[in-house]
Amino acid sequence: MWLYQGLFLSALSSATLLPGSSEIFLSGLAVLDNANLVMLWLIATLGNVVGSCINYWLGCNAMYFKDRRWFPVSERQLEKAKVQYTRFGSISLLFSWVPIIGDPLTVLAGVFKMKKRLFVLLVSLGKGLRYAMVITLAVGVEQLF
């Protein structure tokens, strides 16, 4: 049971701005003889989506501090991000699993007040597909069926 909890926490931290290595953890668990691949996929996906929801929440609340001197994003950078986000739209969240750009995308979705249901749907699709690919690469296609 503790392995599943560890996987959830690893996936959650991987989706936030904290470092994580959920793909390595998931791959290791997937190659175990008695691994329940569907359960591993569900737990990793759920943990990663919850982590993205934390980013969304941070984005929603970050703008309360935009007038503070220590705020890490200038008004100009924020405006530029808004143009890019509007240009590519909410569909860009299908790429929330991509390293380096995925976490900021989920924060920006919160900053720009994207609809929560659409956010969860798109992020879940993207992250679920990514973890399905990780499992497939770890165990091989022939072992899935």
From TrEMBL:
TM region(s), chain numbering: 38-64, 118-141
Keyword Nucleotide-binding: no
UniProt KW keywords: Membrane, Transmembrane, Transmembrane helix
InterPro entries cross-referenced by the UniProt entry: DedA_domain, VTT_dom
VTT domain mapped to chain residues: 25-135
A GO CC annotation given for this chain: plasma membrane
Pfam families assigned: VTT_dom
PANTHER family according to UniProt: ALKALINE PHOSPHATASE LIKE PROTEIN, INNER MEMBRANE PROTEIN YQAA
Protein name stated in the entry: DedA family protein
